[in-house]
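Thread title: Can someone regenerate the structure for this chain?

I was given the following input by a collaborator and told the matching structure tokens would be attached. They weren't. Posting the sequence so someone can regenerate them.
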Amino acid sequence: MARGKKRKKQSGPFRKWFSRVVKTGLVVGLLGFIALVVAVMVIRSSLPGFEDLKSSPNGQMIRVLDVNGRELFSMGPSYGQWLDYDEIPQVMIDAMVAVEDRRYESHLGVDPIGIARSVKVRLERGRWAQGGSTITQQLARNIFLNNSRTFGRKGREILLALAMERKFSKEQILELYLNKVYYGGGAYGIDAASRRFFAHSAADLNLAEAAIIAGLVKAPSRYSPTADAQAAIDRATVVLRVMQDAGAITAAQAAETKPTAVELAPEPRQNSVRYFTDWALPQLDLLIDETIEPIEVWTTLDLGMQRAATNAIQTGSPAGTQGALVAIDRDGAVRAMVGGTDYVTSNYNRATQAVRQPGSAWKLFVYLAALEAGYTPNDIVTDEPIKIGNWTPRNSGGRYAGDISVRSAFAYSKNTVAAAIGNDIGTSTIANMARRFGVTTPIDTNPSMVLGTSDVRLLDMTRAFASVNAKGIAITPYAITKVSTMKGDVLYQSKFDGSRVLVDPWVAAGITDLMQTAVNAGTGRAAQIGRPVAGKTGTTSSNKDGWFLGFSSGLTTGVWMGRDDAKPVRGLQGGRAPAAAFAAFMKVAVAKRKVEKFDTELILPDWQLEPDEEELYGAPEDGIYVDENGMPIETGQGLEYDLEGGQAEDGPPQLDQDWIDSVLGRGEDETEQAEQREDDDPPADRPNDPVSILPEPAEE
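Best answer:
Regenerated them for you:
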């Protein structure tokens, strides 16, 4: 008995200690649980609402598309279109749950089994090699925290995850997660990732594509298809195997799904396309109100034409020179724009920013004004030496053909005839014609301006030729057809305005006749492409600039080549490299278009068919004059000109008979090219046969 009492007495203190520890533990645990519940409830009450969390994070995403919907360029983080839970493909949900959080449906926001497994791997390998975070924890970290690996951040992450599970449903958490997580390549959310990597909405994801996207979350920079396509495919194969193990798909489905067969979206172009986007995107400020929503900008650019344009400039520009090309469709849509031989080395856009002398390409305006004043393509003019004030223009090679038609004078780019026409109708009339057709740079009105001494932009010149192609209707180049939100709400839609008439159709038909002859038999023969082409060459003094501008099958293209420092380039003539580059581009650009013949039939107005001398020869004060900057000068009560609308408002144009005393000499305007000719001077007994009397066409 005594021994039993002693044993009981000895065990008493231990029992009391153990009991105290248990009770203390229970109390501490209960207090900790209460504190945890209180903390979770406090955090829950402070969490933003579901609709607030759906809003996009900082930064607007602008996605720029070509005319066929292919991505050209993107700015800012890409968030794509928000997909509601019932819009997300089930294969995408199954893939993400299987690979990131297999017990997602059963845990309360934190997965103890996953944490235990992570700790076990940490003890075995001596480093954190496997995460134990649930989808809810990852969402909490992405929205509220950072990626620092500290126990403090992990504790806050757990509390937030528990609070989010109390505030939101499992479906809401998955919806937030799939629409907000980063998937690489600048894409946040499955829709942005799908559009970035597969070029279509996430609503259309198939199993293989869903496996690729689900595999990106673990390491976006490593498994992104834009970084390593093979690594992304290999990771997708692992995801399919995990989905099979989790029972999300069958073995047969896993076997027949081939990530290698997935067609990845091509990488957005970062070279010559940027010339276009740099010009187009600033126009958004004028088209839409400021918005923070992600938007899609649909442009006029055709990637196929852009590639052809880039190739034509890069391969066709003479060594040491730059080149630029603009192609405008019949409604003003810019289909291709190349501002230099390489955007990476020089982002200066020579198509829209550079101002250079156009040479004889300027004769478009000279002959437009002449036709409007009463000349016709078949009229006879005299190619002979001429002196205007102290200025004596001359032709290339110093040869003169005598009496020839207006058509031949234009086709063979006769400088003396252009000078005589300018002297006849007045250089101010020509300047106004250029203004009417969209030239925005200052225009001089000296006699030599007929040979292209005023600086111009390639875009303006191409616009002018496009307006001729449109039979005299004003064409305004534009780059953006539509702007919409990712949800499809249209913020802007372009509309074509064909109401502004610059010249009568018979004037446009006449100049088209002249330009077609220039390509068929004149200085622009290198621009032939096997279908009707109308165009004009241009070369400046000492071969500093070479131009060719023309149109065919509704597409108008302008090409410029030269050096940025304006130094001479040996052999650079508009009828050579620029015309050849035009042809190389147009053969590709219009290959699938219908062959169109030009309407060159002249239906002349009564005032021209039955000329009235008083009507044709008004007083000098009835004309229109411009200053050295191209601004109109009021000189009398005569013809009124609408600069904005670009049309004459009252009757036919008057001929200006004034001589202009100021002189601008251009002694080096025409280069010596006599050695290039093979024919002798034309016989004097055949003055009216331009085909037989003209030598082979020489560049202006």
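The longest helix spans residues 2-46.
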